[in-house]
Design goal:
Sig_transdc_resp-reg_receiver, five-stranded parallel beta sheet, alpha/beta, about 50% helix, single chain, CheY-like_superfamily
């Protein structure tokens, strides 16, 4: 049932609006408030799907109500009710985030169409939020250990900024999950997160991959092509395994960070980009700097915020949670019933030396689910999780 709040200080108009909406659709539950202050109290204490709000009211006018609602419950659509002399103000409220406005006395068809459209928009916003939560769950960070809790705290503080982040840690620890969380919790979440695995791209192609190229720049360049930095414009670029990037590509990345501009290979034309850079590596970059393999100036540009992701052996307390998470995820993927693990099986898994970290644990859990009993036992772990 859609819950609608009518905020209107003129009792006669308020009664008309409540009567029209209540009689129009049995699925509408209509509440009322006689001024802005009481309306705000109701909004704080209840969940409404739509608000109809007069502009000129004592104590707190409609513009103030609109601004307050956008701070406390920004997802609720607000339709402003305007008198003849309020039309300019009504138009201005649209710029402040109002869904629409209707004039007094309200035209029945216009009122009902506006209400239906606003409720449809609210439903779409809710669906999008649910979808985003599902997407976010794919990159959920599982764990309650002190190390993981600290990483989550840092992400919450850093994500809303545009600060560059360097994520370090061994292979298989989940550095890409940190990058996804940083992006999804940022102001750039509506933009793209473009991932580049620097170790997987040949050194002679990395510059073209990152910055694009123009036709004829090299033998196989048959047409102009945009690079990853351009694709990430307005969003985030994640440079995974940046320690494997060539020195010439590092120089161009440094320029892109300093000037927010890139040049396609074979071109001298600057292209302005607005990109947040997150990088990750499993290498000791300070050692790479000493050996001449990594630029020190680039390191300092990237490492504004450092996040170290611990090896699984450093967070064994999280293994029961990870086992449960992977068991459910694998069961969903395979369309089977989720298996449980005995306490002794879990304890044995916590004692193993996980050189392959989270990635290795997931593979072992999948193997145990396929080959083990209905409840995975200590014996199953000894048989099928051999190191």
């Amino acid at each position: 049932m859609a819950k609608i709040l009518v905020i209107e200080d003129e009792a006669a108009i308020r009664r008309v609006l409540v009567k029209i909406l209540s009689e129009e659709n049995e699925a509408y539950s209509v509440d009322e408030a006689e001024d802005g202050l009481s309306g705000i109290e109701k909004i704080k204490n209840d969940d409404f799907d739509l608000i109809l709000c007069d502009i000129k009211m004592p104590k707190m006018d409609g513009v103030e109500v609109l601004e307050a609602v956008k701070k406390i419950k920004p997802e609720i659509p607000i339709v402003m009710i305007s008198g003849h002399g309020d039309l300019d103000t009504a138009v201005n409220t649209m710029r402040l985030g109002a869904f629409d406005y209707i004039s007094k006395p309200p035209d029945l068809n216009r009122l009902l169409n506006t209400v239906r459209n606003a409720l449809d928009r609210k439903e779409l916003v809710v669906e999008n939020k649910i979808l985003k939560k599902k997407v976010s769950k794919k990159y959920e960070m599982i764990g309650e250990s002190e190390a993981i809790s600290q990483i989550k705290e840092i992400i919450d503080k850093v994500a809303p900024t545009d600060a560059r982040v360097l994520i370090t840690g061994p292979n298989g620890t989940g550095k890409e999950l940190v990058a996804h969380w940083l992006h999804e919790k940022s102001e750039r979440a509506k933009g793209s997160l473009i991932e580049v695995n620097c170790a997987a791209i040949p050194s002679e192609l990395i510059e073209s991959e990152l910055f694009g190229h123009v036709k004829g720049a090299f033998t196989s360049a048959n047409k102009d092509r945009a690079g990853k930095f351009e694709a990430a414009n307005g969003g985030t670029i994640f440079l995974d395994e940046i320690g494997d990037m060539s020195l010439s590509a590092q120089a161009k990345v440094l320029r892109a960070l300093q000037e927010s501009r890139v040049q396609r290979v074979g071109s001298d034309k600057d292209i302005k980009v607005d990109v947040r850079v997150i990088a990750a590596t499993n290498k000791n970059l300070k050692k790479e700097i000493e050996e001449g393999n990594f630029r020190e100036d680039l390191y300092h540009r990237l490492a504004v915020i450092l996040i170290k992701v611990p090896a699984l052996n450093e967070r064994r307390d999280d293994i029961p949670l990870l086992v449960d998470h992977f068991s459910e995820k694998i069961a969903n993927e395979q369309g089977t019933t989720k298996k449980t693990f005995s306490d002794k099986a879990i304890k044995l898994l916590q004692e193993y030396d996980w050189t392959g970290n989270i990635r290795e644990l997931r593979n072992v859990i999948e193997r145990l689910i396929i080959l083990g009993g209905n409840e995975v036992s200590e014996q199953d772990v000894k048989l099928f999780a051999s190191k």
